[in-house]
C-alpha cells in the first residue's frame, strides 16, 4: 500500500502525516508513507488545497485533516 500526504509543510500537513503514521502503526499493516512537499507534484495529483491524502493513487482527502477513524476507513477501503 502506498500512502501519500501532500502538502507544503504547514501545521495541518504535519498533523495529517503524524496521524496517518499512527493509524498505520495501530492497524499493523505494511504501507509506504510518503510526504510530498513538491508543489508541482501536489498540483499534478489534482490537489489544489492542502493537505491532501492519496492512498494507492486515489485521492481521499483534500483541504482538511480527517480524524483517525476516517483515516482508518480510507485505509480499509484500499486493503
Describe this structure in words.
- The protein is of the alpha+beta class.
- It has a single domain (2-77), classed as Glutaredoxin.
- Helix content is 42%, strand content 24%.
- It has three helices and four strands.
- A four-stranded mixed β-sheet has the order 2-1-3-4.
- A hairpin with a 2-residue loop joins strand 3 (52-55) and strand 4.
- Helix 1 crosses helix 3 (68-77).
- The longest helix has 17 residues, at 11-27.
- The radius of gyration is 11 Å and the shape is globular.
- The mean pLDDT is 97.
* Structural class by secondary-structure content: alpha+beta
The mean pLDDT is 97
CATH architecture tag: 3-Layer(aba) Sandwich
The CATH C-level class name: Alpha Beta
Globular, elongated, flat, extended or rod-shaped: what is the shape?
globular
Helix/strand order: EHEHEEH
Strand order of the largest sheet: 2-1-3-4
Largest sheet: 4 strands, mixed
- Poorly predicted residue ranges: none
> What percent of residues adopt helix (DSSP H or I)?
40-55%
Spell out the CATH superfamily.
Answer: Glutaredoxin
What separation lies between the terminal Cα atoms?
8 Å
Counting H and I runs of at least 4 residues, what is the number of helices? 3
Number of domains: 1
Total strands: the figure is 4
Radius of gyration: 11 Å
Q: In what range is the share of β-strand residues?
A: 15-25%
Would you tell me which CATH topology applies?
Glutaredoxin
Amino acid at each position: 500500500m502506498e500512502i501519500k500526504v501532500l502538502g507544503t509543510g504547514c501545521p495541518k500537513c504535519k498533523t495529517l502525516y503524524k496521524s496517518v503514521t499512527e493509524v498505520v502503526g495501530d492497524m499493523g499493516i505494511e504501507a509506504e508513507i510518503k510526504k510530498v512537499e513538491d508543489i508541482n507534484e501536489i498540483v499534478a495529483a489534482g490537489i489544489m488545497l492542502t493537505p491532501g491524502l492519496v492512498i494507492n493513487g486515489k485521492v481521499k482527502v483534500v483541504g482538511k485533516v480527517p480524524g483517525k477513524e476516517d483515516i482508518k476507513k480510507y485505509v480499509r477501503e484500499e486493503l
